[in-house]
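Office hours follow-up: a student asked to see two folded examples consecutively, so here they are.
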Amino acid sequence: MSWMLLILSISLAAFKSSLYNAYAKKEQPGIGSTFRFNAVAYGVAALIALIALLFADKSLSQPTILCALGYAVIVFLLQTVSVTAMKEGTMALTSVCVMYGMIIPSLAGPFFWKEPLGVRQIIGVVMMLVSLWLLRGKPGKSGCVVTKKWRLLAAAAFVLSGMAGVMEKVHQSTTGRAEKASFVLTACLFMLAFSVAATLIVRKNGTDGGFNRHIAAFGAVSGAAIGIYSIVNLSLAGMLDSMIYYPVANGGAMLLTVLASFVVFREPLDRYKIAGTVLGLCGMAALSIPV
C-alpha cells in the first residue's frame, strides 16, 4: 500500500512540475503572478481537501491547527524565496537547492524518531543527491553568474524546503495524526489567505499584472493535484521511514519531470541528465532495500 501511494506521490509531483513548466513558458510569471496562481491553486486544493474530509476523520485538534499553520508559513515563504532566487540566478540550480532540502527531514528521522539507518540507505541518499545535481543539465549552460544574493536565497530555499518535510513528520507524530484531510484543508486555507494578502500588497505597489485565463486554468488544475498530493504525502510521512520516503519521493519526481520535459516539451536530454537518471534509479533501488 505504501509503495502504491509513493508511486502516486511521485506521479503527481512530476505532473505539477510539468504543469507549472508549461504555465511558466506561456506567462513567464513574476512574484505577483505567482501569488495569484497560488491563490487559485490553494483555493481548489482546499476544496479537494474538504471533499476528502467528508470521507475521513472530521476532528480538528490543536496540534493539527498549529502544524498546519507552521507548514503554511514555511511553504508560502519557500515559494516566494524560490521565485526570487530563480530571477536572481537560474531555475535549474534553484530547483536543485529546493530538492536538496530533503536532506533535512531524511536525517531528522534517524536522529529524532529513531528510525533505522543502514550503509545502503546512506549510499542511496548520496546517489540521489548526485543524481539531482546531474539532472539540472550541463553545468554553466545558462551562462548565468551566481551572485551572493542568489546564494543566500538558495540557502534559505534549501532550509525552508527541508522544514516543510519536517512539519509533515511532526504532525504525524502528534495525537492529531489521523486528521490528514483536516490538516491539508487548514494549511490550504492559511496559504490561500497569505496568497490573497500578498496579491493585494503587490497590486497596491503597482507591480500587479492582472488576472488572466492562464492563471485560472493552470492554477485550478494544479490545485486539484496539490490537494490529492498533500493528503498522499502526509500519509506517507507517517507510514515510511524518512530515509526512504523523502529521497525517493523527491528524486523520483525529479526523474519523471526530466523525462516529461524531454517527451512532452521536447527539451534536450544531454549526457548529464541521462547519467543523472541512471544514477537516480540506482539510488532508489538502494534505498528500497530494508536495513
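And the second, which I mentioned at the end of office hours:
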Amino acid sequence: MEKYINNMDEEIEEKGISLGDIFRTIFSQKWLALIVAAAIFIVGTVGLYFYSKFKTEYSVTFVLRLPGAITPISYTYPDGTSFYYTDLISSEYLEEVKKSDETYADINTAEMLKQGDISIKRNYIEQENVTEAVVVETTYTIKVSAKYFTSGELARDFLIDIANLPCVYISKLDIDYDLYLSSAKEANRYDIELDFIERQVSYLQSAYSSYISSYGANFIVDGVKTLNSYNSALSVFIQNNTISNRRTEVTTNKYIKSQDAKNEYSIEVEGLKRQLEVEERTLDILKDLTTNDGSTTPIINSEVLNQARLVESLKQKIEIYSKYADEGVPSEEFAKSIIEIENKVDEFTNDFAKVASAVNAKNTSVSFSDANIMKEESGIGLVMIVAISFVLAIIIACVVAYIVGRVKLKKPAAPNAVQNEQTDEKQNQE
C-alpha cells in the first residue's frame, strides 16, 4: 500500500496536477458542491446576521431645552422635582416609557440595565455666535444594543420617547399656584385673611417679573396677549390699594369675621398679658443694673431701650386685640367686598396658571442632531454579510468537492496496486 501511494506521489510529481484537473475533480462532485455551498451560505448568513445583531448599537443625539434651564444637566422642574440627565436611563424612566406603548411590551429593560446595554453621554459643542463669543451647546447621546428590538423602527421610537420624557412630564404638570389664597379662604380673621391675599398677589407679581426677565415682556402667551399685558392687569389692581384699604377698615373698626375669631382674640390677649408681665420684670432687672449715680454702660443702656420698646409694643397689641374681642361687627357690604377681592385674586391666579402652562410648553423641546434621528452602528452590514457568506460557501464547497473527488478517483486504482505488489513479491522470491 505504501508503495502504491509513493508511486502515486511520484507520478504526480512527474506529471503534475493542472488547473483543469482540479476543476474536473470539483465538477465531478457538482451536486455535493452545490449542497455544501447552499448549507454554508444559509448557516453563514444567519450566523453572521445574529452576530452582527448582537454587536449592533442604535444611538440618538439630541438637544434638550427645558424652561428656566441654561443647560439641563441638573434641573428642577416647575413643581420642584429634581431631574438629572442620567435619570433618563434609570429603571423608573425606562419602565415608564415601556408602559406608555403596548408595542414596547416585549422590550426587556431590566436585562438591558443589568447587562449595561444602554448608556447616556453628555457632550459639549462650542459654537461662535454673531458677536464672536463662544457659546457652549450641550447635547446628549443615548446608545442601546440592537438585540432588544425586533426592528430598527421600534428602537427609533423607543429612543425618541426616552428623550422626550422631561417634555412629557412638564406637559402633564398640574401645579396648584394658589399658595396663599387657599389659606386666606380658611382664615377666621380678616387681618390674617387679607395678609394671605396680599402674599398671593406678591407671589404672582414676582413670578411675572421672573418670566419677563427670562423671556421678555413681549412674549406672546395665547396668540394675542403678552406677558406684559397680564402683568399690567395685576399691577393696576395692586396700585388701587384695594387690599390695604380693607386692612385699614379692619384695624380702625376692629372688625371680626366670626365668633371663633372673637374667641381667638380673647385668647391672644391673655397670652400677650402674660408675656407683658415677663418683659416688664426683665425691664426692671435691666434698670436695676444702672449705677447709683443713674449712669449706665452703653451696652446696658441699649438693652434697656430695646426692652422698653418691646414692652410698649405689647401694650399696644393688647389694647388693639382687646377692642377686637369686645366689638367689631362688620357690615354685609364689607364682608362682600372681601369676597370680591378673593375672587379677583383667584381670577389672577387662574390666568397665571394658563400663562405658566404656555411658557413651559413653548420653552420645552427636544431637537435631534441627525436628520434620520437614529444612527445604526454596526461592524457588518447586511450586504457584506451576504457577500462574506457567499465567498465562504464557494471556497468551502470547492475544497470539500475536490477532496471527495480525489478520494473517489483513488479507490478504483487501489486493487490494481495491490495486485502489482503481489506480482513483485513473487518475482523476488523466484
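Two things to take away from it. Residues 1-6, 8-14 have pLDDT under 50 and may be disordered. The longest helix spans residues 332-362.
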